[in-house]
């Protein structure tokens, strides 16, 4: 037998796959005149055509007003944030923030004075007497130190009543 080589049959691809139910129309030729229209397809109205009534705009107007108010609030907030950022870039401080910083520094100074007073008081108790330097500084220099000194004495009294040694 002779060796025969069989070539597979190849189908030629179609131009474009067609979907079922859709006819392919040729493109319109704009050079040709349009066909005449059929008068029987026109809708004929007897009498006058009524103009439709105007829609009620109250709901739309209230929604628009609410949105405008929201836009205004957010734009004011944006302006405030931009001002803060601009102040940070220019190193100009807000007067309110500066007042808070000064108040914080004053409170920090008072707290440091209270701590110094408490340390001196504890050292005085350990030594058993007072020194000349302790007598020169008034024991209560601020209202906060008065309050803390009173609390310290209450804590000492409780510790003494329970028989615990006082520790700082």
Explain the overall architecture.
It is built from 4 helices and no strands. The chain is an all-alpha fold and 168 residues long. α2 runs parallel beside α4. The longest helix is centred in the middle third of the chain and has 33 residues, at 58-90. It is elongated.
Radius of gyration: 47 Å
What value does the average pLDDT take?
Answer: 75
Count of alpha and pi helical runs: 4
Low-confidence stretches: none
Report the sheet-strand fraction: under 5%
What is the makeup of the main sheet? Answer: none
How many β-strands, per DSSP? 0
Structural class by sheet pairing and helices: mainly alpha
Helical fraction: 40-55%
Shape: elongated
Distance between the termini: 114 Å
Helix and strand pattern: HHHH
């Amino acid at each position: 037998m002779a060796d025969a080589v069989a070539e597979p049959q190849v189908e030629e691809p179609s131009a474009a796959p067609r979907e079922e139910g859709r006819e392919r129309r040729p493109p319109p030729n704009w050079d040709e005149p349009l066909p005449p229209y059929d008068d029987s397809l026109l809708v004929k109205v007897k009498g006058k055509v009524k103009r439709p009534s105007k829609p009620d705009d109250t709901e739309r107007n209230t929604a628009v007003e609410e949105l405008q108010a929201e836009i205004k609030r957010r734009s004011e907030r944006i302006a405030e944030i931009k001002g803060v950022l601009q102040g940070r870039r220019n190193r100009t401080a807000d007067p309110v923030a500066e007042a808070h910083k000064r108040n914080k520094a004053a409170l920090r100074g008072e707290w440091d004075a209270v701590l110094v007073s408490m340390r001196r008081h504890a050292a005085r108790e350990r030594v058993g007497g007072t020194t000349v330097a302790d007598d020169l500084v008034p024991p209560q220099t601020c209202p906060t130190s008065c309050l803390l000194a009173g609390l310290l004495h209450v804590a000492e009294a409780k510790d003494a009543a329970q028989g615990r040694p006082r520790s700082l």
